[in-house]
Amino acid sequence: MNPVVIAVAITGSVPRKKDNPAVPVTPAEQIESTHEAFEAGASLVHIHVRNDDESPSSDPERFAAVQEGVEKHCPGMIVQFSTGGRGRDPSARGSALSLKPDMASLSTGSVNFPTIVYENHTTLVTDLATKMREFGIRPEIEIFDLSHLHGAKRLVEAGLIDERPHVQFVMGVQNALPAEEHLLDLLLGELRRVLPKATWTAAGIGRNQAPVMEWALKRGADAVRTGLEDNIRISKDRLAKSNAELVSLAVQAVERHGRRVATPTEARTALGLQSRA
Length: 277
Prior knowledge:
By secondary structure, this protein is an alpha/beta fold. It has helices at residues 27-40, 60-73, 122-134, 147-157, 181-194, 209-218, 243-256, 264-270; strands spanning 5-9, 44-47, 49-50, 56-57, 78-81, 103-107, 111-112, 117-118, 138-143, 166-171, 199-204, 223-226, 233-235, 238-239. The strands form four sheets. An eight-stranded parallel β-sheet has the order 11-10-9-6-5-2-1-12. The protein has a two-stranded antiparallel ribbon with strand order 3-4. The chain has a two-stranded antiparallel sheet with strand order 7-8.
């Protein structure tokens, strides 16, 4: 019955899905959607912010507004900022880290996406990791390719992150890692070889969200990820009504595997974070 952290990725960096207005965009919408997901069982929120025209934003004021609202309405919830790069100036991707969220995403290598190269130059990776260490932020290492695990190992060896990082395998992005179960076993085997103390989770993109979650739970993952950033559908014929609805499905999956959902305090302990009052 070891508890499972449920992470909810509420928005993403692409414009609001025209066929699903449930995707929250403004800070007020994001705070409300996060609170609903928190009440449904999520203990970690992954945050992107948008400009008024819905383009990806690096504006620290918008990150601060969402952070403040989440901390007020979702006691103890882990706040994780994205430093992802789609549509954002690389030099600005760490601009909100001075707000000292609990966690921040950190990609350790470049990868092809459907229409762009998601570029993470070694200099940028080192700069972001250095800032996270400076501000006491725990990184979540985003793995889009097997080589990215070795990028994380190099950060450990350089003293930029500790020996127990939290690692997320991202599966199902077109042109990157396919969502195939045997590949998760390969990735896990290499993770346990090069970063044996790491905690881990896996994210499935689009229709892969539910199957990847099942594979992760079957293998004893420390966390699972859901949310409208990755997937806007419950089924081929039905759109998700909210992030909370997707979190509720994740709760059911956790319970099917004989485990229970982590409280915010348990989530912080599992991921090596300090408690918040």
